[in-house]
Amino acid sequence: MMGEIINIRLLTTPSSTSLLGVPGKINVFLREYNQQMKQENYPMVAKTLHGFEEICAQELRQLGASKVELGIRSVRFEGDLGFMYKANLNLRTAIKIVKPIAQFTLKNQDDLSRKMDEIDWSQYIEVDQSFAIDTTLNSEIFTHSLFVSQKAKDAIVDQFRKKTGRRPDVDLQFPDLRLNIHIQQNQCTVSLDSSGKSLHQRGYRTATNIAPINEVLAAGILLLSGWKGQTPFLDPMCGSGTFLVEAAMIACNIPANINRKEFAFEKWADFDEVLWEKIIEVSLKRTREYPFKLVGYDKAPSAVHKAIDNVANAHLSEFIEVRQANFFTSEKEVSGPLHLVFNPPYGERLDIEMESFYKSIGDTLKKGYPQTDAWMITSNLEALKHVGLRPTAKIKLFNSHLESRLVHYPMYSGSKRTKFQIHEGQSTDL
To answer: Which pLDDT score is estimated for 37?
Structure first.
């Protein structure tokens, strides 16, 4: 199976097969290559979701980042060109990886144009190429992100017109260069977006159910739950199968974005294809086998078909089984520990009777799922009161724009009651 995944990816990188199967030689090659190219570390920022800052930081440290610092929905770090490639390929809880190129203070709106003109844009884009600008802000100087993007665009275009008499185009869908502008009060940071489309767009999910869970959110929930692939896994309301695929990728240590077709850095002037191929090679050599089965249930046949298709797209059918079943009439099928993670309907997605539905969740766990580590995310905070189980952890997250809670119900063998333990660093407030 791992060989199948590797071969599929390497269809696009034919020259990288020479060192496969020799991880020691690969690592030596990378060290020597970096020394030869004299690559230096530079600051970068990994953007993430609320509540995932520490997890994202842990991922970065494990990959080898230096000077890791937590921010708000972001993590600052340093690394070289190869590490930027590696972060985009491997990080499960990052939405984007951006590379700051300028930071300055704004006194008024006109300052933005002047500061943008001080940047030599010919270093990053040619006149016959295209660009796009994304802006996020929290400022009294500017109140509309689109206005900021427009002023910044005008400054870049005017600079090229003065120097060449021509201008680069704006392409919001498929730009050669994507810029990120972040304004916090009077502080402005201009960055190159190395990712392009959000990293939650993994490339395997072509079929979706009603209100599917974001891939980055799913991966973060799994990591928060302590999932490492050491037990069987069940998602009893699997929808389009996102939890199943992300859980399998964690269990097998498959790079999160191995199925993506492209990253923004592949269009940069300094893109190093040889180095990129070696990063892919090294990352794929770290995959591992998963000795159990990941299982998904859903009542709806349409959801089952969609999940099966997405699992196949991710090349994980060997590890994942999806079938039509009603969780409320089910019982645990494996002996020993089971890791259970799911995202039940919260009332807006499905016409359900909230109180009885969530009560049934608690009853089913108590009666049929001993020795189960059950984790559930819901945006229906009122519904949690009807589960009938006291969670040992409640973690505040956001599912899209909806404030949610990730709750933990450890079900112990031989008892319908749960022990109560508070996980260090986790809130217990609803």
So the answer is: 55
